[in-house]
Amino acid sequence: MPCAIVTGASRGIGRGISLLLAEKGYKIVAVGTRSASDVAEYIGELTSRSPESIYVSADISTPDGRARILDSAAQVGGFDILVNNAGIAPKVRADLLEMTEESLDRLINTNLKGTFLLTQAAAKQLIERKTDAHKMIINITSISAETSSTSRGEYCISKAGLSMVTKLFADRLAEYGINVYELRPGIIETDMTAVVKDKYTAMINGGLLPIKRMGQPSDIAKAVYALAEGYFAYTTGSVMNIDGGFTLSRL
Length: 251
Prior knowledge:
Layout: E1 3-7, H1 12-23, E2 27-32, H2 40-49, E3 54-57, H3 63-75, E4 81-84, H4 101-128, E5 135-140, H5 153-173, E6 178-185, H6 197-205, H7 217-228, E7 238-242
Parallel strand pairs: 1-2, 1-4, 2-3, 4-5, 5-6, 6-7
Helix pairs in contact: 1-2, 1-7, 3-4, 4-5
């Protein structure tokens, strides 16, 4: 049974990814910052689909949290896939000229630095792992990796950095048969976007997207599953935009 670590697993996009992979026969090491008691309903749904799956309460921005994730994966037999989905948004959407150092540090530490260091440590284990399963790293970034949003510049910066992390590890790990991918979600209906849902809905209705709806976590989960199954084995470092056509150049 292939095993996938999924960070930020208990809500939003991560929930969709982890539950679909579990349904398809994957063992999941689900990671979140909340305690197990706080996500008991999610854990119950996860283990009903994949009984060998586990939940790990850990913060990827800390050395202890990253070590706990990999130690927990080792205890269930190791992992084949790392899905870097954990990410946070600014507490306050402030104009670029008013962005605080505290907010910048907070997002960089989790979205970029924490993800990079977890990937670095995980890659060393994947290199040594003997498995018939596909070995890969999938980074969930955002259209914000390329799209300017001056009310949350720290988020854009962190996702742009993670895009380069994808390229670097794809280059470095190809010789070991480890593929690395970047998925860029567009406007996805999650708790992170709930506060601006009305704004996004109006923009979509006004013609922002060719596909006139917000994306769902399941849209991202299906793409992760296609990668995990090895359907894109002859590619690495690739970017897949799952954005309703947002990045399509149109007149």
